[in-house]
Amino acid sequence: MANLLVDKRDVDFVLYEYFDILKLTEKKKFEDFSKEEFDMVLDQALKFSENDLAPTNEDGDRIGAKWEDGKVILPESFRDPLKAFGDGGWISAVDDPEVGGQGLPMVVFTAANEMFNAGNSALTLYAGLTHGASMLIEMFGTDEQKEKYLEKMYSFDWGGTMCLTEPGAGSDLAHVSTKAIKVDEKNYKIVGQKIFITGGDQDVTENIIHPVLARIEGDPEGIKGISIFIVPKIKVNDDRSLGGSNDVICSGIEHKMGIKGSSTCQLSFGDNDNCVGELLGKPGQGIMIMFMMMNEERLNVGIQALGLSSTAYLHALNYARERLQGTDITKKGKSIELVPIIEHPDIRRNLLWMKSYVEGLRALNYYAALYIDKRNSETDESLKKFYGGMVEFLTPICKAYTSDMSYEICEQAIQVYGGYGYCGDYPVEQYARDTKIASIYEGTNGIQAVDLVSRKLGMAKGEIFKFLVGEIEKTIDDATKNTSLTKYVNIVKNAKDNMVKAATHLTGLFTNGQVPEAFLSATPFLDIVGETLLGWIHLGQLVIAEKKLNEIFESKNAKTDDEKMSLIKEDKESAFYSGKVHSAKFFITKILPIQEAKVKTLMDDEFSALEIDDLSFGEEVPS
Asked: Are 424 and 418 in contact (CB under 8 A)?
């Protein structure tokens, strides 16, 4: 049944027809799963999102998280859905059964997570951060720490956060000033402040567990001197019973453009010299450990943006079918009958633009999740390492490219609504405000681009990038067998070649020591890679969809164009595959060719942004 959150038929297409995820069940890690079980999980996720999450989304925006007397109060309607995240096993869905998880493949849970974020992204953040914090304890905690915290966190009786950012430090973690003063081998007193802490306080779970970056007194300055600590809001006794306050105070929350139901907190640790944290891992491992969570959260940000893009598109589509305005332009002067705006050419172009991006971004993000599953289920260590490299390479692209395009998709959804889209009576303006944060937090998209060109492009001596280029070439070779697709094959091949040229140019700048010059083109390069990957994805999906559509035409004896069009209007499967064909052709011919101009500008050695004097940007205004 159709819904306004995600195109479930396209989710199934990507999982089963494009990626054939049932191959994962051939691995020992996933051998107990079947398609029926995957389908059941996805059906339950969609039902949960439709019935429990989506109805609370407006409350999250209109009521929001409130700060009163040092405590955060969430909208009343958030309580039951947040409890259901724990009761439904969603927090630990991908974790091993030994720690209370379901052991689901990440790619299946990623599809479910898209649905959750389409329903209420602000609410879903509380669950996502709790899983990330739990994962750190599972990976690096002692047996005692695992026994003490994991069950309560995976059941969502206790929440979790990620405490990195400090006032004045921003993304520069080397300057963490929060102190850890040793009490004994396990415990340290924590003193300091953290800001921009998602879910830093709330009144739903009985406790909140904060992983906190801090520097042990006497340890060196910089990244190498930073450790990480488990700091509960309420002290936890060895028998897991709760003690008194752990001197963790929420000193305020941010008043934001969007995701208002997600409390973004300022936290003070140890104002009364009574905040105690447990060392997680070893001294000096703080950044390494925290980045395990950061990388997961960056992929989650991509899914957050994808979910908001998906529901924005479907709402715009639904509105375009219902909104009557204007007459049929082919009957100008001959008819005064109003028509749905979906019949107007510019609206149709706008909708297909959104559809092609949402479908491409969905497959891109699922692709990264699939490589997490390949890594986690592989026994060959060299392959496991390679698959891990693929996840690392794809992470900044999924996070940054998806979030950048999500804002544009939501903007175009507003445009379909016209003036109503700008008003709070309809949800698309909230989606635009909610998705904007995705390009900023968990490392701004500029940081993601710098990471891509400085670390990921040359990773494993460039073998990861070469592998992706090879995968594109395989799809091109496969599509070449169908001569009717020659036009689309050539465009994708040209884009692939242009991407390689751009990568070679940036590598040359680094080799010549022109690091600032290379960084100047980091964001354009990430866009180029994102667009090329979506072009490749669409070409692969075009091959499958056109083949399936022709098989349906043949089985239904639809031979003429009129017979085929008639079948598409009557048969949902024909309509779906026809939609996939048109999405792919539109993206490849109307969007992907723009990439060539971006590559041309990237390779032009014009560095005005570096050469312009600060004062030449504009006259300085006295502070």
From this structure: no
Dist CA 48 CA 3 (whole Å): 13
H-assigned helices in 335-380 = 345-377
List the structure tokens of 341.
């705006």
pLDDT in tens, 573-606: 999 999 999 999 999 999 999 999 999 999 999 9
Residues 331-341, mean pLDDT to the nearest whole number = 84
* Angle ∠(535,385,128) on CA atoms, nearest 5: 70
Number of Cβ atoms within 10 Å of the Cβ of 544:
17
CB atoms within 10 A of CB 542: 25
Whole-angstrom Cα distance, residue 278 to residue 136? 13
In this structure, are residues 77 and 58 in contact, taking their beta carbons and an 8 Å threshold? no
Considering the entire predicted model, what is its pTM? 0.97
Dig out the tokens for 560 from the structure.
């003429």
Please, are residues 214 and 192 in contact by the beta-carbon 8 Å criterion? yes
Residues 6+ apart with CB under 8 A from 346: none
Radius of gyration of the chain (CA): 25
Helices H / strands E in the chain, number of each: 19, 14
Per-residue pLDDT band for 54 (boundaries 50, 70, 90) equals very high
Cα distance between residue 335 and residue 331, in whole Å: 6
CA distances to 30, 40, 120, 576 from 108, rounded to whole Å, are 12, 11, 19, 21
- Rounded CA gap, 264 and 283, in Å? 28
User: Which residues form the catalytic set?
Assistant: 442
Taking residues 415-425, report their average pLDDT: 97
Task: Name the packing angle between helices 522-555 and 486-511 (round to 10°).
Answer: 160
280 to 129, 158, 193, 286, 621: CA distances (angstroms): 17, 18, 19, 8, 47
Report the C-alpha gap between 479 and 465 in whole angstroms: 21
HSE-up of residue 38 (Cα within 13 Å, Cβ side): 23
Among 1, 7, 532, which residue's Cα sits nearest to residue 317? 7
CB 171: neighbour CB atoms within 10 A?
12
Residues contacting 72, CB < 8 A, separation 6+: 65, 66, 200, 201, 202, 203, 250, 253, 263, 265
Report how far residue 247's alpha carbon sits from residue 70's, in angstroms, rounded to the nearest whole number: 12
Tokens of 539: 């070409």
* Contact assessment for residue 50 and residue 57, using Cβ atoms and an 8 Å cutoff: no
Nearest by Cα to 439 from 404, 406, 405, 412:
404
| pLDDT at residue 173 greater than cutoff 80 | no
Let me know: does 201 contact 195? Beta carbons within 8 Å. no
Q: What are phi and psi of 180, to 5 degrees?
A: -125, 120
What residues contact residue 172 under an 8 Å CB cut-off, 6+ apart? none
Whether the CB-CB separation of 318 and 444 falls below 8 Å is answered with: no
The DSSP symbol for 433 reads H
Q: What share of the chain is helix, strand, coil (3-state, %, to 5)?
A: 65, 10, 25
Q: What type of residue is 240?
A: R
Q: What is the DSSP string of 555-585?
A: HTT--SHHHHHHHHHH-HHHHHHHHHHHHHH
Q: How far apart are CA 194 and CA 38, in angstroms?
A: 40
Average pLDDT of the chain? 96
DSSP conformation class of 512: T
Give dist(CA 137, CA 234) in Å, integer. Answer: 17
Report the distance separating Cα 594 and Cα 611, nearest Å. Answer: 27
